Amino acid sequence: MTRLRRAGLAPDRGPLAVAAEGPGGLRLLALDPEARALGLRPGEPLGRVRARIGVPLQVHPADPESDRAALLRLCRWAEGYAPGVAPFGPAEAADGFYIDVAGASHLRGGEGPLVDDLAGRLARSKIPARIALADTPGGAFALAGYGTSDRVIVPPGGAAEPLRALPVEALRLDPGTVSGLRRLGLRRVGEVDALARGPLARRFGEALLLRLDQAMGRRPEPLAPLTEEAAYRAARGFLDPIGRQSDIVVTARLLMAEIAPRLEREGLGACALRLVLHRVDGVMRVLDLGLSRPERCPERVAALVSLRLDRLGAGLDAGFGFETVALTVTVTGALSARQTELGAAPQGDGIDALADALAQRLGRPLLRLGARASHIPERADHTLPWTLQCSDSASRKSRRAPSPVRERVGVRDQGSPERSHPSPGSLREQISPARERGPEPQPDSCESHSPLTRAPTSWPDHLPPRPLVLFPRGEAALDVLSTVPEGPPRRFRWRARIHAIVHAEGPERIAAEWWHAPGAARDYYRVECAAGRRLWLYRDGPHAPGRPAAWFVHGVFA
Amino acid sequence: MGLDPTNQTGRDPASGSPRERLAALRAHLAGPGGPAAPRPVLPLGLAGIDAHLPGGGLALGPPHEIAPMEPADAVAALGFVLALCAGRLARTRGAALIAAAPSQPLPHGHGLAGLGLDPARLLLLEGGSDAEVFRALEAALHARALPVLVGLLADGLPLKPGRRLQLAAEGGADGTAPPLLLILRPAEAGLPNGAATRWRIASAPAGRDRFGTLDNPRWRARLERCRNGRGGDWLLEWDHAAHRLRLPEPLACDAAAAGRSRA
Description:
heterodimer, A: alpha+beta, MutS, DNA mismatch repair protein, domain I, 4 domains, 4-stranded antiparallel beta sheet, B: 9-stranded mixed beta sheet, two-stranded antiparallel sheet, 23% helix, disordered N terminus, disordered C terminus
């Protein structure tokens, strides 16, 4: 509910409810205070509720996955208080988290200020929260959920007494056990705790005693804190802030040298790195580096950082210097040890290093030309970001056939997993490698992954000659003079110059692609003018007696 | 740089012909390493032109400047550049990099077939300015990863970037041949620079076969400036079947070729 309001999906006012599929149709799952004030209770069928209350009720479908993600985000945020943060599991209704503040509360001036600070920050973020601090996770959960106050701090060793007054639901029991206890007249934790343990265990099972003991601190309850997300991270703090570019580069090299053995152990390399520079005054500078192939060499990473800093120049603004430099590997790729052949050139021919250097220094990607399956000339080729795959196939081809005579891109082999490197431009989409190796290529990712997942459109073999330079769209030829009405022109003006045609070849008729956009077929002519320039002309639409012919220059031959 | 007084070659006026003395002086000026290995070159495969170029071809490493005769010949000049590219790529592995300043025309992928270029062996880089093109070319020269580098400039090659490119080409001599560096600039932007050769290219009526097609483009190529070589003026024809340059045979009916080709 809070997630919906914070995301702007639900209005700030008015009764709001979240409903989910339950026995007998949709049932209410969660309610906001205004809806509770109307007398609604979780678990009621939505249809009956709508019939009963006379006011409009906003109902949203339940989305447990988003709720879980929101809770994890909150946990990540709470890691600022103490490193051990564990979200609630299904037994605790998954709507909160534990913080293990043992040994960390003095950093905030004690337990009281810590709870105050936490409550204040949550309130400022408009997140309603109940906070309890106790010796055991079970006790803290019970006091937070069923205690009398929003903020409870139990002194060490004093958890048992307030717990005894709480209802038995506070013990994280399954509903069957709770209703069984209530049928026996046991409503308070204290009443249960006073009974003999043997009959209780026989009647309700071991789980009841376990929960009771965990709350009372008689049995340990280990928490499962969130695991560190970025396993490949290194940071270095400086007593004296650093500001010089060479210092940052050296630090980046040292940090990468720290990370490299860990990557090597897993057979991984870094495909994308993030260098975070914390300035003394609290400003953070984030540099994202993309690599064209997985890499774990500290020197190369340092060189890329140096190039990036070169480009930033004064834009980095070191101010009074950086006190912390952290390097995180954000995307990893498989990088296995490769045996080099004696005398053979290294794979990739160093183009990948050049591509990385240009991307860092100029911020511009290397491109290549790709064919597209289209007859319309301006749609038949396009530029794509260069990837290592193209260079591999190009060099393999050239080794096989050194002659350049009409080499064509054939069907490329479906790259083995260790060669499926992302291009710097498409790193963002490649964070989950499992997706692209799915049984069928995803339609949204086939544009950038085409060399990896499917053979690209190859360059057609039998195409009439095409101009060396093609204009994006035809440029109008004016004052056209033709001797034959349906033939090519004899003279025309283009780019403020009269062109007299001495030779013409054609026509080559190219029909419009009706599935893209309707248009007329074009009749293309290759013409040579008296000065020796060769142009590619077309007439828009076939010749018709009553219609003046429109001529366009679409390209220039070499 | 003064002559070393202990060296007798420069002092003895009677030793050999002037040509030999010149060679000896050149060897002396080249320093202790000397002209040990001849510089790698790209021969054009045309004896008439290669004789004009020092070393028998376009030197690999220093920039070669190519300009159209007039603005309308820009595509012809690009065709000549790509023809040289194709010649170099045919002899080696690897790819060519075309670094273009903004608004410079980039080649059409399907039009490269006529020049014998595989589009998969072309890398493109669209720079934001001439300065970015120079930086990209310099980085590529240092990397030694590509056998051909082409810069398409909007404002021409000034002296300082030209010198930087030359230094980058000479550095890193670890046995690998430096790349062929071609600079295509607009017709009007003629600046003094350190280019090894300067060519002016104009389009000429294509050579016709018996079907009268336009498949064999011809270019008027004038070698305006050539360090340690001679200039010249030729009519060149691109053989679209063999993918090489040739000097057209003067046919009886071919008025364009006859009389124009002079060395």
